[in-house]
Design goal:
The protein has one domain (about 10-150): Glutaredoxin (3-Layer(aba) Sandwich). Helices cover about 30% and strands about 30% of the residues. The protein contains five helices and seven strands. A seven-stranded mixed sheet has the order 2-1-5-4-3-6-7, sandwiched between helices. Strand 1 and strand 2 form a beta hairpin. The longest helix has 17 residues, at about 40-55. It starts with 7 loop residues before the first strand and ends with a helix. The mean pLDDT is about 90.
């Protein structure tokens, strides 16, 4: 079975329900999917690249997708509130979509064998994965991503 972004419900830091993948804004979407609070450092290596590519590729939207066990759902206001307080930009808050629920559904859907690193996924609104890698970005955008987006490297 080909990996794909599963259908899951998330909530943006602007308190909007977002159904993934169809609720994503872009015709193509770059997602930094994190599984642990400590993953923010890895996510932060990708966000400037996401923003630059959004300027180059029409219809591309970049997202941070913190994925947290459903057991933490009662703490959502506290967790999301802390993230929101740290992010002054409304667009970044709108594109930070926290998924509280079955983390295995996300990792299994993406074909991941672990949660030690973030997953960086290029997908369409149907959840088809066009490109994927794991971990922090080092040394500039990977050529495979640029190729999948149809931009020069």
């Amino acid at each position: 079975m080909k990996p794909r972004l599963p259908q899951v419900e998330g909530r943006s830091l602007e308190d909007e329900i977002v159904m993934l993948p169809e609720g994503l804004e872009g015709s193509l979407n770059l997602l930094a999917v994190a599984f642990h609070r400590t993953h923010q450092r890895e996510v932060d290596t990708w966000i400037p690249v996401f923003r630059e590519l959004e300027k180059e590729v029409e219809g591309l939207a970049g997202y941070e997708i913190p994925t947290i066990s459903g057991g933490w759902k009662p703490m959502r206001r506290f967790i999301d509130g802390g993230m929101k307080a740290a992010i002054p930009d409304p667009m970044t808050r709108r594109r930070t979509v926290t998924v509280y629920g079955d983390v295995d559904r996300v990792t299994d859907g993406l074909g991941l064998t672990g949660r030690d690193e973030i997953a960086v996924v290029l997908c369409d609104r149907e959840g088809e994965i066009l490109w994927m890698t794991t971990g922090a970005m080092t040394g500039g955008p990977p050529p495979g991503l640029l190729e999948a987006l149809g931009v020069g490297g």
